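Exercise (ungraded).
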Amino acid sequence: MEDLRAIIETLLFASDTPLGVDRIRDILGEAERTEIAQVIADLKREHDERKGGFQLCEVASGYQFRTRPDLALWIKKMRGLKPSMLSPAALETLAVIAYRQPVVKADIDRVRGVDVSGTLKGLLEKKLVRMLGRKDVPGKPIVYGTSKKFLEVFNLKDLSELPTLRELKELQE
Amino acid sequence: MGYEIKLDIFEGPLDLLLYLIRKNEIDIYNIPMAVITEQYLQHLEVLKSLNLDLAGEYLVMASTLIHVKSRMLLPVEADADENGEEDPRADLVRQLLEYQAFKEAALTLDRRLLLGRDVFKREAWPELEKSGEEEEDLVELNVFELVAAFQRMTANLRKEDVMEIETEKMSLSDMIHEIMERLGEKKDVSFTDLLGESPTRKRVIYTLLALLELMKIRLIRAFQAGPFGPIRIFPAVEEWNGRPQGDH
């Protein structure tokens, strides 16, 4: 159905966040999940073959049009601004949260050997990290985890796509 | 000193230790405590002499190193159960390996194709302003957002106003009375209204201080409809007598 193809493409184009198959099905009302998945796969291949300025990427349990990495230079030129990147401290804190979630701040402090209050606050403000709730231990500390935006920014389909931690396996013996 | 000291900013004591271990090409499972402790302390001295704010964590690690070093000096009792005595360095090594794993994981994360750095999505379009003031979705503000609004106000002040020499006498309690009076007349008042036509810096400051004070003692509440929207001040307790609710 050529129509379905156009509708799904238009949704993916206009959406601000990655769209999952379920969300697309909600919008369409009818249409089978497999059918939608097939259309998305076709669209993805079509855009890959076209070798244009953007691709359809699978990210954060959904699909999103993104520019080609080898063309990043031009977009940076257009924007004129340096992208605000994460500091090594923020990246380390984020890594601990990503791999250890749900995790309390005291555990992040212990792993990194420093007080992470500042970097944690920054990550919360950037919405890469979110509060998941409180742990049922004395003091009821807040439990942190990564957000959907984390998957989006770090180009991950889901958390299982995180590479396994080296060395850590032997440690846990 | 026989070697140069690197003054990169380390991410913490564990980072500094890992650096020393790498630099000396030391086997992490067999750390010569004396060498590492000495070099670690020398780095701390340099950091201190540069008047860098030395976080407490560095000192805690220093004492841990010295403690482990001293335990290494103790003779191992010959008849001690071999499995019962753990290497005094074991905890430290575990900590270092764990940290190293996460440090690598952080670098791996950074090497991915990051959105906003390596790949881009379409720019979000600005939301069209909602029409009809009555439908404003009011959000309760905290003190920080009020201060942010204050900063925007002062940024908008004309330069000449800032240069004027102010003779008007103003006091905090006068301002508080003024705000409460105006809230008595109307059911709500906006931050901009309170400032008047061309506010002086002094008036903006007094208004803000008065609002903060009133928020603190819970006489008023501040609301804002979306980011950068006008800030509206309401009395915390609705106690205007004789005036119907919907009156404007």
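Further reading is listed at the end of the chapter. For now, observe: The first helix of chain A runs from residue 2 to 14. Chain A has two domains: 2-77, 88-171.
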